[in-house]
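Study this:
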Amino acid sequence: MLSVIRSGRLAVVKLHQGKANALNTPFLQNIAQTFNSLSLDNECSSIVLTSASPSIFCAGIDLPYLSRCNADEVRALLDSLDSALVSMMECSKPIVASINGHALAGGCVLAAACDHRLMTDNPSARIGVTELAVGVPFPYLPLHAITTLVAPHAFTKLIYFAEGINPSTAASLGLIDECVPAAQLMERAEERARTLGNIPSETFAITKKCLRNPLLHHHRTQWSNFSPKPEEIAEVWISEPTRDAVMSFVSKKVGGGSSKL
């Protein structure tokens, strides 16, 4: 599901889960384990996250998988998504996303958990948060991972209208940092990762903690006191109307496009 390729002190992590890198519980657990391990690896100074697929970085949660989950399995899926994001945000090493194709919904959130985001300049590639188009609400941590990147007026539009946007628009909004020609994308991502990796490790790690810890602190201590509570959001994910909406979305997409979220 994941491969880690070493090039000196740089680790290139490649997603390869089917054609679209669909996120299910085992895959998300694998992502968390990989980044937790790299965070403690003294032979690694920086990381590039990319996809083995030529045109899809990650198309999000595997909806057919979601539609087969019972209530406990849905809760485990959401917990695994949070754990994967936390592992990336807490990773002591700089993570550069090399987004070589579509990054939608959960795929966009994975990119947001990285420290720097480069995307192909291919105008047909799309990035965005499409959860509401399927009929599922955002959990808190994925939602607020995006808010740290995009201005509030643009963020609400991205969320409510659930549209994928092209790379140049994403760069103008701050959702990604750079648009790069496809042929140069990995070279540029590795260059940026090595640049960050040359910062003294303790200096980078403590700076990253200062940037990420307010969000992670809220995740651990505050959101359980908010309304809706995280468990209420999970209840909507497993409700009959949501299941019906997911199944309807899947049935429309089968044979004609991605059935991922």
Q: What stands out?
A: Residues 136 and 197 are 38 Å apart (CA to CA). The chain has a mean pLDDT of 92. The chain is about 50% helix and 15% strand.
